[in-house]
Write a structure and sequence with these properties.
four-stranded mixed β-sheet, 10 helices, globular, 2 domains, GST_4_C
């Protein structure tokens, strides 16, 4: 068994982070490869012929004719959870079916909605503290929606569904776009983000932004 994870060369993709965390939590051995999105490397044949959507993250499993390549982060994390299930491996999703559905709902939502927040608070402002302007009126509305929904799910400073799930990482990273830039966020959500950022698998990703 061998895996390769292709991430962006700046390590700012929240979706590559999600898969990195999933592999790390599962304890699966993998090598990390990077793709320079700024230069358009993802569109070149060497990558695009394997990762057909020409996006990161991309997970490569196996070698030669048996090689399997998958893109789209939530598809990858679901595949990993089905391929390496508990109790031998940590669960990435809640075991109860409705909670599992809600976790998948959160994943889909933070990837498909809240575009103004994702644009005006891109992850370079989170990981590199890139300066940003006050939120526009449209982004303020999106941020209010994010806070409203998150408050319905976050009941305490720890996990959404009792035990940790990959949805915790995804929601916390989305909320961190506001928290790490000083935007107004209820204390309960700030505490939740801080708690999730301390998880060793997330810290292992953040360590890649440290000098040296």
């Amino acid at each position: 068994m061998s895996f390769e994870l292709y991430a962006d060369s700046l390590f700012t993709s929240p979706y590559a982070l999600s898969v990195f965390v999933a592999l790390t939590e599962k304890g699966l051995p993998f090598s990390l490869k990077t793709v320079d999105l700024g230069s358009g490397e993802q569109k070149q044949a060497a990558f695009a012929d394997r990762a057909l959507t020409a996006r990161v993250p991309a997970l490569v499993e196996g070698e030669g004719h048996e090689q399997f390549v998958l893109t789209e982060s939530s598809a990858i994390t679901e595949y990993l959870d089905e391929s390496f299930p508990p109790p031998e491996y940590i669960a990435l999703y809640p075991q109860e079916r409705r909670q599992r559905a809600l976790a998948r709902q959160i994943q889909a939502w933070v990837r498909s909605d809240l575009v103004p927040v994702r644009v005006e608070r891109d992850t370079e402002t989170v990981f590199f503290k890139k300066p940003c302007a006050p939120l526009s009126e449209t982004a303020q509305a999106a941020a209010a929606k994010l806070v409203h929904v998150a408050e319905r799910f976050v009941q305490g400073p720890q996990h959404l569904f009792g035990d940790w799930s990959i949805a915790d990482t995804d929601l916390a990273i989305m909320l961190s776009r506001l928290v790490r830039n000083g935007d107004e966020v209820p204390a309960k959500l700030r505490e939740y983000v801080d708690f999730q950022w301390q998880r060793p698998s997330v810290q292992a990703w953040l360590a890649r932004h440290q000098p040296g």
